[in-house]
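Checklist before submission:
- one chain only
- standard amino acids only
- sequence pasted in full

Submission:
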Amino acid sequence: MSEIKLTYAHQDGVALLTLDNPPFNLLTLDMTHELNALMPRLAEDQAVRALVLTGSGERAFCAGSDVKEFPQVADAVVPKKLALENEAYSRIAEFPKPTIAALNGLAFGGGLELAACCDLIIAEADTMVALPEIKLGVFPGSGGTIRVTRRIGEGRAKEIMFLGEPVAVETALAWGLVNRVAPRRGAVAVALEIARQLSVMPNVALQLCKQAIAMTFDRPEREAVEATLALSDRAFRTEDCAEGVRAFFAKEPPRFQHR
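Returned file contents:
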């Protein structure tokens, strides 16, 4: 039975979320329901300050939706499938803390859409990514047309979606779709190391910074600048800001308490 495995360590503030449906970690409706229910709990868990999302095994991060389920949703694909997926994916995209996708194998279709919800994407060498939905007579319906386009721009987004062909990790890196390339079998280790670095950063400031960056895409520039001033005001009032200033003048590492 497919499931989402969750492991996290309180001592380092990092949650590792693993999609476990080998060999390709296809996203089923049941898994999507699990993901949808899990994300709010992780968002509220103060012990979690960064999240890493990966897939089990070595062949795939996630190869997309389980096509075998298509006949049971074909008569009402939006309410039975796409609305649920978009709700779950939006919970990841709007997760208040830093998120990292560790691509330990191919990321196709809904798998790439899922990865694009994360703040950072680490992919192993030889990884391939693709949005091949056009070959099934449809197009990415779980946010890929928006989130992937925001990462790589209109022209490249049309190329990857219109042609539906796999893209090598080196190209994905050059396009800005992937942040870093890790050695083979090393994506999770690299992602966890970055997550641990983020977990000791002032988490409130990181969350406010994430909100400020998100405003870039949905507000006029002047309005976004004004809104970020309010976020900056909140950051400057935190205990962590006072600690950061104290540590700066004391010439020692800050001891952030994430408040």
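Reviewer check: The chain has two domains: 3-199, 203-250.
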